[in-house]
């Protein structure tokens, strides 16, 4: 099975940047699309970004498009989320996830299409 470990969260001022990393072990990382989700207190877990294993096609939530960039390094079994121009509303626990093989397109925006999840990393954006 795939195991995922996030890192890079922390406290940052509004307008600042953070880069989250997600290290994967086990399974076949290169065949899994990867996604980032976040969950703020009292809110449902929401889609942030996803990237396919083939051709690195990316998808973004409208709320982060133009500010966040998802990428992956299959040789390092690692996915990344570069977050720029952070806002207070970006404050949440961020989770990386690995989708089932062959999952693609709009399905990657739903958490139900992901088999493996990391433990989450806290991102707090101060005003």
Walk me through this protein's architecture.
The structure is a single chain. By secondary structure, this protein is an all-beta fold. The strands form two sheets. Strands 2, 4, 5, 6, 9, 10 and 11 form a seven-stranded mixed sheet that branches. A four-stranded antiparallel sheet has the order 1-3-8-7, with no helix packed on it. Strand 7 and strand 8 form a beta hairpin. The radius of gyration is 13 Å and the shape is globular. The model has no long low-confidence stretch (mean pLDDT 93).
User: Rg to the nearest angstrom?
Assistant: 13 Å
Number of helices: 0
Mean pLDDT equals 93
Q: What can be said about the biggest beta sheet?
A: 7 strands, mixed
Structural class assignment = mainly beta
Ranges where pLDDT stays below 50 over 5 or more residues in a row are none
Strand content: over 45%
Tell me how many strands there are.
11
Give the overall form.
globular
Distance between termini?
40 Å
Order of helices and strands: EEEEEEEEEEE
Helical content, roughly? under 10%
Features:
127 residues; four-stranded antiparallel β-sheet; 11 strands; 49% strand; globular
What's the layout of helices and strands?
Blueprint: E1 3-7, E2 10-13, E3 18-25, E4 34-39, E5 46-51, E6 58-60, E7 68-73, E8 78-83, E9 92-99, E10 114-117, E11 121-126
Describe the structure in brief.
By secondary structure, the chain is mainly beta. It is built from no helices and eleven strands.
């Amino acid at each position: 099975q795939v195991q995922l470990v996030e890192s890079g969260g922390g406290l940052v001022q509004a307008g600042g940047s953070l880069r989250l990393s997600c290290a994967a072990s086990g399974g076949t990382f290169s065949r899994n699309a990867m996604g980032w989700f976040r969950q703020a207190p009292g809110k449902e877990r929401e889609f942030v970004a996803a990237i396919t294993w083939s051709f690195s096609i990316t998808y973004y939530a409208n709320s982060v498009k133009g500010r966040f960039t998802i990428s992956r390094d299959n040789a390092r079994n690692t996915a990344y989320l570069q977050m720029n121009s952070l806002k207070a509303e970006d404050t949440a626990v961020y989770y990386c996830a690995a989708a089932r093989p062959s999952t693609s397109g709009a399905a990657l925006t739903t958490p139900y299409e992901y088999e493996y999840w990391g433990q989450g990393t806290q991102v707090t954006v101060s005003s």
